# Entry
Amino acid sequence: MKDDYQIDTLAVRAGQERSQFGEHAEALYLTSSFVFQNAAQAAARFSGGEAGMVYARFSNPTVAVMQERLAALEGAEACIATSSGMSAILATVMALLKAGDHVVASRAIFGATQQLFGNVFTRFGIDTTFVAGNRPESFRAAMRPNTRLVFIETPSNPLTEVYDIAALAGVAHDGGALLAVDNCFCTPILQRPLQLGADLVIHSATKYLDGQGRVLGGAVCGPKAPMEEVFKFLRTGGPSISPFNAWVILKGLETLKIRMQAQSASALELARRLEAHPKVERVYYPGLPSHPQHELALRQQASGGAIVAFEVKGGRAEAWRVVDHCQLLSITANLGDTKTTITHPASTTHGRISAEARAEAGIEESLLRVAVGLEALDDIEGDLQRGLATL
Ligand SMILES: *Cc1c(COP(=O)(O)O)cnc(C)c1O
# Structure
């Protein structure tokens, strides 16, 4: 595929190779293995001497289309799809790090990612220093001679704190480490970390890439050499994506741009309206001029994204009242869906961390997070207004 096509075109076309039947849509190859013409070809395929499909743990034509399409969108040389976002992070670390290596990660990363770095990798001799806040100097101070990976998510969940990808790539590279960015919240439509100097992009494809809440999936994107290592781990360790899930996700990519644009536009307008509401204490949204990293967000992202967090006046009781008055919004911790979701982070996604740690992270009892979907904005706002009016 011509690589000077625009992102809209790549999202719909990249990676497709038609079979002898000339199918218009991408075919779903629901097969775990592939047949060889003779013994010599089987040997050549297994040794890697001949390109071609072998066994679906590490090769499948449907998965290959998804990988090529996502790589094209991220502007990456290569992409490896995995069974979930978490297994994408697992595969990255297992492939590229070893006992004795050190990781610097932002404190404000996905809960399971924190557990993986903080409790699992430590048992295999890989230690992580978690950095609070988004100041590049704090990351620089955490670097050690054996630091091999810097890991961030931007914007952060749930407070939408924006991290300077170019500056952090500088910090990582000065220390001989790679910068990995979990690009789940923005997707390549709003932010392309590799163009800003990051080395690897991680995705939970479960979120916006599928975008319709159907399947689990993940991916790592980056240059050929590290991705070859990730591929070797996938082939051996097996955190592989189902061809069915890859097919659902690759069809999701075709509408990613129009979904991200529409959901972000609604989120911006919702953020503006909430900021003007007398019962709302504070709104966190990178697209608002009141956001502390608004300038950086404008530089680094195409828009503020589709996640809005806000504090109501009061505490847990008032926040829960807003949640419990919702008739339309789904009360669920998931995000990235066409259906708008609402979460009370302090009692759900961030409920297992201590009250002090939550306070330090700025996650108040009065905080709510809304992941804006495709419903009419007035209906989404009306659902929130119902509860806010009782405060
Ligand atoms: C959901 C999520 C993950 C984990 O993805 P799964 O597909 O659920 O394994 C990782 N990072 C972020 C930012 C997420 O939101």
